[in-house]
Design brief:
243 residues, mainly alpha, 0% strand, disordered N terminus
Length: 243
């Protein structure tokens, strides 16, 4: 009975068009690299499809460490992902390149590419760097970061985004600490955080945060978008200093 069921499942899979099978594989790949490899081993019909560039473009790399991947097959796999325009691969290359290499400009280019592919962590990181760097792109950095903070879809994921970026930063030897632009972020002199670096005490007194935020870092601001971005920059700069 078991062999008969397996044959039926095999024939059922072979009857599906490759386009549909590819979409199934992409769904699995974008959720878990481990599950994709298990699926590849479980069915020979998937082996050829798994080697398609479309899969490498969408596979999730969150299960792989940012650094210390020295095995040739892993490095080859990551290179293929980057060449296919995989947003996770571009983000990894960008954050490592900006903070741990001698070519931060190239790292910033990779972060920009990943951000344009709507990679949340890359958008978060790219926005922060542009804000801290100042200059003509500072406003664009505010727009990127604000879009994450205020979006109903992404706003709830900011905390998880911070956590992943923090994990990445802690796994690297930081060679390029960002310098902060000292110009006030908020253009409103009447706003509750004009020209100040926010912290939990002043934020609580100003009415930005509830007690839950102080303890759990949930995003419950009542101030303007500039102040919220200012606070996010403050958190990130503390992160770089190991706080």
């Amino acid at each position: 009975m078991k062999r008969t069921r397996q044959r039926r499942e095999h024939h059922a899979i072979k009857s599906l068009p490759n386009d549909l099978l590819m979409e199934v594989l992409v769904k699995v790949a974008s959720a878990s690299l481990t599950d994709l490899l298990k699926l590849k081993l479980s069915c020979k019909d998937f082996c050829g499809l798994v080697e398609d560039d479309y899969i490498f473009q969408h596979v999730s790399l969150k299960e792989l460490p940012l650094v210390w991947c020295t095995r040739d097959e892993v490095l080859s796999f990551l290179k293929r992902c980057k060449q296919s325009g995989n947003p996770d691969a571009l983000f990894r290359e960008g954050i490592y390149g900006y903070f741990s290499s001698k070519n931060p400009g190239l790292g910033l280019e990779f972060l920009e590419k990943a951000s344009k592919k709507e990679h949340i962590e890359a958008t978060y990181m790219y926005g922060l760097i542009l804000i801290c760097s100042g200059g003509p792109l500072k406003q664009h950095g505010f727009q990127l970061l604000s879009s994450l903070i205020t979006s109903k879809l992404n706003g709830s994921r900011i905390k998880e985004c911070r956590r992943r970026v923090k994990d990445c930063i802690r796994s690297m030897w930081i060679k390029n600490n960002m310098a902060r632009d000292q110009e006030p972020y908020c253009p409103k002199e009447t706003c509750c955080n004009y020209g100040r670096i926010p912290n939990s005490l002043t934020a609580k007194r100003a009415g930005w945060l509830s007690n839950d935020y102080i303890e759990n870092e949930d995003d419950k601001f009542t101030c303007c978008e500039y102040c919220r971005c200012h606070h996010e920059v403050h958190l990130f700069c503390n992160m770089l200093q190991g706080k």
